[in-house]
Design a protein that fits this description.
Transmembrane segments: 26-47, 59-76, 96-116, 137-156, 191-214, 235-258, 270-290
Number of helices: 12
Membrane topology: Multi-pass membrane protein
Helix content: over 70%
CATH topology: Rhopdopsin 7-helix transmembrane proteins
CATH class: Mainly Alpha
Order of helices and strands: EHHEHHHEHHHHHHH
Domain G-protein coupled receptors family 1 profile: 39-288
Number of strands: 3
Largest sheet: 3 strands, mixed
Number of domains: 1
Shape: globular
InterPro entries: GPCR_Rhodpsn, GPCR_Rhodpsn_7TM, Olfact_rcpt, Olfactory_GPCR
Radius of gyration: 22 Å
CATH superfamily: Rhodopsin 7-helix transmembrane proteins
Strand order of the largest sheet: 2-1-3
Subcellular location: Cell membrane
Strand content: under 5%
Length: 321
Amino acid sequence: MVNVTFTTGFLLMGFSDDRKLQILHAMLFLVIYLLALTGNMLIITIITLDNHLHSPMYYFLKHLSLLDLCFISVTVPQSIANSLMGSGFISLGQCILQVFFFIALASSEVAILTVMSYDRYVAICQPLQYETIMDPSACRCAVTAVWIAGGLSGLIHTAVNFSIPLCGERIIHQFFCDIPQMLKVACSYEFINEIAVAAFTTSTAFICLISIIFSYSQIFSAVLRIPSSDGRAKVFSTCLPHLFVVTFFLSAAGFEFLRPPSDSPSAMDLMFSIFYTVIPPTLNPVIYSLRNEAMKAALRKVLSKEELSKRTMYLKSLFKL
């Protein structure tokens, strides 16, 4: 076991001390990670290449996939490496970067999901004003605000969290530098600032949740008034996947961060951390592509022999130049 009594890092306990289970965990996480990378890269590529998908909804979906791709890359590769090496040690610098990017990307994900719900609300409830409200300039500003807000949230959390003195052993019962677990080794009288920051972040996330709930209550009210069953089905096919993603991500993250901390580690902590760190970035591409006819048609087009032949010829011409 790595000596973590010095101030150079932390010990991530992970899932098991058994070597065979560590290898199994590494292989499972590697498969999941490759699936997440492939799915999200595919969505980004499809939306970029297909002109029919150059609309606000797919523009936001592309940024959601980019966020998912980065989000899962913050925690899973480090966990795979630790399991393969049989060591849970993570340096202080790595832990700082992991906390910053984790909070920044998680905050950005909540924000982009809120923007996506507003986009669907305007498209369905105010269709005549949609092009005016969701013009390209407004979409770019919204996405820029999402990334900036996430970055500021990550910066504040990281600065406050790593200014807290530690009174316990530097052992984190997680597979990544998780703030609730890190606070368990902090001096009890010193982390009032982190609690204040966490309360502000939670309040902001709650406002986003209320906005999403309001948007979808208006959407479903409008959908139920559509006389055509085909029209209702088309709207539900674009809205239900987004609603499922929002519910799954926020409920898992909310349960983990809002429940009272326990002194003893449990398998429940690891399970719920997987629910909001690993599963959403992996399932989001599947959910959006399977329920969206435009995405499926674009995927078939990109993977068709004619399209692949065109891309190959284009790449060959570039290399010749």
